[in-house]
Amino acid sequence: KQESRHQPEVCGLRLIESAHNNGLRMTARQRGFEVKDLLSLTQFFAVDLLYRFLSKMKAQPKHLGCVGLSCFYLALKSTEEERNVPLTTDLIQISQYRFMVSDSMRMEKIVLEKVCQKVKATAAIQFLQMYYLLLQENLTFERRNSINFERLEAQLKACHCRIIFSKTKPSVLALSIPALEIQEQKCVELTERVECLQKHSKINGRDLTFWQELVSKCLTEYSLNKCSNPNVQKLKWIVPGCTAWQLKHSYYRITHLPTVTYMVP
Fold first, then answer.
1. Closest by alpha carbon to 150, among 177, 187, 123?
2. For the whole model, what pTM was predicted?
3. In whole numbers, what is the pLDDT of the chain averaged over residues?
4. Which family is it part of (predicted)?
């Protein structure tokens, strides 16, 4: 019931898909790069927030960094304890973005306004966790090891980097991933469980098959050498020595950020 209330607007997603790389409008490729940055921080709620905002608001490429960081910060504040949330100034300094704290605060207000103050939505990762637990119920130890959650989560990350998957319901995408894995294993018992989950989730069989095929295509492309694997890709922010010195006393607050590389000029 919740997921349909937070779906990105299809008309907005189509505008992103049709945009040309002329610096005036954000393209699907540029959006994909921003999602990869957010996924390297394993913030699925930030990605969902980015989806919903960009489907309602026309964003220029030069503003995308501010939008992405604002979505990440809003998601962080809504999911983590206050003591684990870094200061906005620290985030901007480490990220090396060229905007002010006031710009970030203004962007946060715009994002909140466009998503109607609802930061946390029903995300695909929540469905994936639920489906995984239900599929694992009462299985033998050997059979449980046949499905690895970390692998499923990595596959979901790969799908999130493609704008096409913004158009499907989180429940459908989340079920498509383990369903594809189980289909390849040809396990009758787990196949029956997928069918049961499909029925209770009110997912059309043809829709599930359609999205399974797209997931399969996406994962095949990500397995090629020319594609980066979002599960191992790490975002590294390089900061100058003076910035590193300024941050060293407050670094303990930044517990959820990627690896920081200190570069002394």
1. 177
2. 0.64
3. 76
4. Belongs to the cyclin family.
